[in-house]
Design goal:
The relative contact order is 0.08. 47% of the residues lie in helices and 0% in strands. The N and C termini lie far apart (77 Å). Helix 1 packs antiparallel against helix 2. With 143 residues, the chain is mainly α. The chain contains two helices and no strands. It has a domain of 77 residues.
């Protein structure tokens, strides 16, 4: 059986918000791995009880009933834990990014005219052919 590998987390560690979210997902994955090992052990227990594993003898009907009850109780606990993990996963997935305040306004650009207008360079005539519609207050509105 494998053991989970956790990062070295000490009280002085500084982790980012993204690291926290990744650690939440990792913890869910490790819990799922642990539940998979428990389910595998329950399956082996049933195989042992019914005598399908090599070198074992079948158990009595009463013992088989006890194994069945024990396995059923464990499966109920695993199902409850799976529902909790689903909720934890959904909550972690729904964490919204934090948008901080706007930063300071940058320095003004270099002096001079624009080098390009809509990707056009040189002497640019703004008009319909350039994809620019001139605004004129001389035309009456039809609305």
């Amino acid at each position: 059986m494998s053991k989970p590998n956790l990062p070295n987390i000490t009280p002085t560690i500084s982790i980012s918000r993204d690291d926290v979210i990744n650690l939440l997902f990792s913890s869910i994955a490790m819990e799922e791995l642990g539940l998979a090992h428990i389910l595998n052990a329950e399956g082996e227990k049933i195989q042992y009880a019914v005598g399908t594993l090599p070198g074992t003898t079948p158990v009595t009907l009463a013992e088989l009933g006890q194994v069945s009850s024990s396995t059923q109780a464990m499966l109920k606990k695993i199902i409850r834990h799976e529902m909790m993990l689903q909720s934890k996963l959904q909550t972690a997935a729904d964490i919204r990014p934090v948008v901080g305040p706007a930063g300071p306004i940058g320095a003004p650009g270099a002096e001079g005219g624009a080098l390009s207008v809509n990707g056009l360079t040189g002497d640019v005539a703004l008009g319909v052919t350039a994809g620019i519609f001139p605004i004129s207050n001389d035309e009456p509105s039809t609305s």
